[in-house]
Write a structure and sequence with these properties.
β4 and β5 form a beta hairpin. The protein is of the alpha+beta class. It is globular.
């Protein structure tokens, strides 16, 4: 292990340069004009994995290819570690809010600013370089390695479950390691005990065939913008609870030990608010901010559009309105159950004269970790040696739907070890990743592979 760590330190500048090359590829999975870039990113990653010592294939799916790398030099009796990540990134919009071009990496204050630096190119590439360091100069690992990098995570991974089912024999593993999240705070690494799920919907309201003159028709014809605003407002009670009947029936009540563990974490709610320049906190009363983020469900309006939004004034009665709404779910909620409850609620609150259409977008199940014992201790030891601090157990407000599917299809427990930091602007302008974590994280992963191989 010592030689591998020395190798990583010696090659630090090259590793960073290669990361920047990876970040320059605009592999935006949501936009078809970037399909060629997605394939270029997959090919680039496959070539880099191959140089790291793995046998690599780029395998086709109905949309973007999957990169599959394997190293089985530890032997049939050794444990196998499946490493998952994704090479696709979010769109960079709005471009005008970036301080530097999103696909031209720039280093400022020890951070690399670029789309995908934290989510997830920077973190999956740490595994690639950790494997290179661990296998260079003829070294061998005590575990077999399988690397799976997909190109559709940011659009809900529509091709991945069929892929995992098709290749489940090759993907069979004793543990799945995923680095696609953040540490609890700077200087304090963490291991995740939960992820929230997701149910995402689009609501389309219609009242007339076309926009109408607001003087000639306003007050006589229903306004879908007003109607949809009232419908959305009906989703919450005044105390922040979700007002959809039956919504909380399946919500897991976490035990007192978990709530105490969350309460004991070093977290300042005012700092949390100030860091994003918000003027107030919000959410369900009776729960702390961390509990609201990790172990309570939410409903958020992600977008709203109606009528005339261009420059100047145009007095119209809009014919249509549209809203996008997402629900973050907790164990034991399911997206299909939330859809049925939402449909029933909409049937009750939609006013006469409004045609309302409900479309369902991608979603995923929430996850609660069952990892413990040796696996958890292996990860804790590796992180403590690399960062000098014992990691804490933390939750994650976001969603990684494939985690549940890995456990269901492969029967493999998941170990979530993230190296980004809160406030890294994932999915927002000026996304960044600390280069110190890139270096220390590679060292932590080299150690983790070794720890997972211990009897």
């Amino acid at each position: 292990m010592g030689d591998a760590l020395k190798y990583a330190t010696r090659e630090r500048a090259r590793f960073q340069s290669e990361l920047f090359d990876f970040l320059r590829i605009p592999s935006v999975s949501a936009k078809s004009e970037h399909d060629v870039d997605s394939r270029r990113a997959a090919t680039w990653l496959a070539e880099n994995l191959s140089r790291s010592g793995l046998d690599v294939e780029v395998l086709e799916t109905p949309k973007h290819p999957v990169v599959l790398g394997e190293w089985r030099g530890a032997g049939a009796d050794a444990p196998t570690v499946l490493i998952y990540g994704h090479y696709d990134v979010q769109p960079a919009d709005p471009l005008g809010e970036w301080s530097s071009p999103p696909f031209d990496p720039e280093v400022r204050d020890g951070k690399v600013f670029a789309r995908g630096s934290a989510d997830d190119k920077g973190q999956i590439f740490m595994h690639v370089k950790a494997l290179e360091a661990a296998l260079a100069d003829g070294r061998i690992l005590p575990v077999n390695i399988v690397v799976l990098a997909e190109g559709e995570e940011e659009i809900g991974s529509p091709s991945l479950v069929p892929f995992v089912e098709k290749y489940k024999q090759r993907l069979a593993a004793d543990v799945v390691v995923i680095s696609d999240s953040a540490m609890f705070q700077e200087g304090l690494p963490s291991l995740l005990f939960s992820l929230r799920g997701l149910a995402y919907f689009e609501l389309k309201a219609r009242a007339a065939k076309t926009d109408l003159h607001s003087g000639a028709y306003g007050g006589a014809i229903p306004n879908p913008g007003t109607a949809l605003a009232r419908i959305i407002a009906s989703f919450h009670e005044a105390d922040g609870r979700i007002a959809i009947k039956g919504f909380y029936d399946d919500v897991l009540e976490w035990d007192d030990q978990t709530r105490a563990q969350i309460s004991n974490l070093p977290f300042d709610e005012d700092d949390f608010r100030r860091n994003v320049e918000a003027t107030a906190l919000a959410g369900e009363s009776g729960w702390s901010v961390l509990e609201r983020l990790w172990i309570r469900p939410t409903c958020e309006v992600n977008g709203f559009l109606t009528g005339y939004t261009g420059e100047g004034a145009k007095t119209v009665l809009p014919a249509r309105a549209m809203a996008k709404v997402s629900f973050r779910l907790v164990p034991d909620q399911r997206p299909e159950r939330v859809r049925k409850l939402l449909q029933a609620h909409l049937a009750e609150v939609t006013p006469p004269g409004i045609e309302l259409e409900l479309l369902e977008h991608h979603g995923g199940l929430p996850w609660k970790s069952d990892v413990g014992g040796r696996l958890l201790e292996a990860a804790a030891t590796a992180l403590e040696e690399a960062f000098g601090t014992r990691p804490v157990l933390a939750g994650e407000g976001g969603s990684i739907p494939i985690v549940v599917e890995f456990e269901r299809i492969l029967g493999s427990p998941a170990l979530l070890v993230g190296f980004a930091l809160p406030g890294a602007n994932m999915h927002a302008p000026d996304e960044w990743f600390p280069l110190e974590h890139f270096e220390k994280g590679i060292g932590a992963l080299v150690r983790l592979y070794g720890e997972l191989g211990k009897k």
